[in-house]
Design goal:
Blueprint: H1 3-17, H2 21-34, H3 39-51, H4 55-68, H5 73-85, H6 89-96
Length: 97
Amino acid sequence: MPKEANMHQNLGVALYQAGRNNEAIDVFRETLELAPKNSTTHIHLGMAYQQAGQYLKAVESFERASELSPQTIDIYKHLAEAYALANQREKSIAALE
């Protein structure tokens, strides 16, 4: 990931950890403009969306992360949780299988 994108991602993580989810979302989206195929940023964006109550957007972010890094097991846990919060129980169960 380019240095500038890495700095953006670190800022987004700090904002997320401070509970400033909407600002974190903006920063993670900017990061993805610089490094669109970074699965970690998609995961962070999904987590921020989820904390902001935007469950369908969280699902989209986690789905994209799983496409980019299908071997990363933790993505599916996040995806299952986002599906459950979005009242998509069957998809939640399927994400864990």
